[in-house]
Amino acid sequence: MSLKLYDTMTRAKREFVPADPDRVTMYVCGPTVYNYAHIGNFRPVVVFDLLFRVLRRLYGEGHVLYAANVTDVDDKINRKAADEGVPISVVTDRYLEAYNADAAALGALPPTFQPRATQTMDAIIAMIGDLVRNNAAYAAEGHVLFATEAFADYGKLSGKPLDDLIAGARVDVAPYKKDPRDFVLWKPSKPGEPVWESPWGPGRPGWHIECTAMIAQSLGLPIDIHGGGVDLVFPHHENELAQGVCSGHGRDYAHYWLHNGFLNMADEKMSKSLGNVALAHDLLKSWPGEVLRWALLSGHYRQGLDWTDSLLDQAKSALDRLYRVLDDSARFLAGAPAPDGAQSPAGAAEHAEVERALHDDLNTPAAFAALFQLADKLRAAVMARDARAVASSRGLLLDAANLMGFLTADPQAWFQSGADDDLKARVEDLIAARQAARAAKDWPEADRIRAELAALNVEVMDGPNGATWRVKEQA
RNA sequence: GGCCUGAUGGCGGAGUGGUGACGCAACGGACUGCAAAUCCGUGAACCCGGGUUCGAUUCCCGGUCAGGCCUCCA
């Protein structure tokens, strides 16, 4: 029953205890919306969506508040907007919409809040003011900088020795910085860039302060869980923590820091600066969202994940198997008398195992294993023609899989996705003709029709109650 | 250079101080007019070298290799 999560701060798996079980809070750093997001951007989306679902089950749907922000003011956005000759909101609105559509296709529930930097400007400016008042920040040449020396624990989250941070700094230090580690809270805008008024002059916020302010505004500090990719541990989360604490919100900023591992393309880290991107937007044209979700969750979230075609094929095959039992059990139930009386508890242990695995720091591979055991249980019940056991274990499989965001499609639709109405009608006609040929034991004709269907990328499967079909390969 | 992860069968990937998950793929058999699915079954792994132990893939040390962070990338 108890949920254990690996906390980056303490580098240990800890039992999760929310500050207030009636108001569990989680924040995850979201995208900068200047382009379509690649599949690597969606790893944290899917991972923390799963955690969101697990938390909702544990504490109740209304008791978990999840904020995932959007950075909608940024150099890359500015450049894109300038290239297109449009206001930045045109760019950000367009890609935010695409991002949310992709996330939904991957089975991610909408977060409770989706704060945007441009809509948090007052809180950002107020928080910078707090930092300046607390002597944790100073203005210099139109900039406002965070004074890292004000935060004694700076470097604790990422485990970096402070001296090394200075010695290892490879970037030229801006002359107005008192300390090389100091980072920007507010900076002047260049001509033509979006600009906001502030007590330190017109300009725009630094990246780190946006998140801290958005958390404070949407959830209130401190929060229970802060998530994001490992690459954000330093400097982004280190800086967030420093800002949150020094702005006067107390020592606790986030009680649990969770970080997902990186997704690699062809043995190289995927990033937009390299050419090896796979946009979720494009992948979704060829694969059902659940396949991508399954692939993203096929390894433990803290591990690195190599994104390959083979990974997707395996994910598809695994899901096919689950959908097959679902389909077969539905057909059995449709033809069987309704089960009477209490349902036998077939599969209860396996069902519990799914949650147990998830509660162990989101051990999705173990949860998948339990899902397959549940599927085996269901298969056995179908073979035994035990309607009560089928109904019971089918419900449990569906519940466990749904909790993880899987098996949300109708099995029939799953196997026939990619077929339009026109194709469906043709297939049905061909199958009817083939059934007639089979009834007449005209095997050559039956096989000829099967070949014709195969040419349409359709596979027929003869069953005791007629034939079923499915699309063989995704487009 | 500093800090941090990881190294498991053909592939993906959990886990465990002692009888080696799970999935994908492969192979044999059953079923099927054929096929698919399904069922039964088979083969197949714990990077290297030390150490601790009755016993290590699992703990400790060293090495090698791979990846990440140290630069406003999830």
Q: How would you describe this structure to a colleague?
A:
The protein is an alpha/beta fold and 475 residues long. It has three domains: 16-133 and 207-286, HUPs (Rossmann fold, 3-Layer(aba) Sandwich), CATH 3.40.50; 321-414, Anticodon-binding domain of a subclass of class I aminoacyl-tRNA synthetases (Four Helix Bundle (Hemerythrin (Met), subunit A)), CATH 1.20.120; 418-471, no CATH class. 47% of the residues lie in helices and 14% in strands. It contains 16 helices and 15 strands. The protein has helices at residues 42-59, 75-84, 88-105, 121-133, 162-167, 207-218, 233-249, 280-286, 289-296, 309-335, 348-359, 364-383, 387-403, 411-416, 421-439, 443-455; strands at 4-7, 12-15, 24-28, 64-68, 137-140, 143-146, 183-187, 204-205, 223-229, 254-260, 263-265, 268-269, 305-307, 458-463, 466-471. The chain has a four-stranded parallel beta sheet with strand order 4-3-9-10, covered by helices on one side. β14 and β15 (466-471) form a beta hairpin. The chain is elongated, with a radius of gyration of 27 Å. The protein binds one RNA strand of 74 nucleotides through α1, α5, β9, α7 and α10.
Main sheet record: 4 strands, parallel
Number of helices: 16
What is the CATH level 1 assignment of the largest domain? Answer: Alpha Beta
Query: Helical amount among residues, as a percent range?
Result: 40-55%
Shape: elongated
Determine the N-to-C terminus distance: 42 Å
Mean pLDDT: 90
Radius of gyration: 27 Å
Count of DSSP strands:
15
Q: State the CATH topology of the largest domain.
A: Rossmann fold
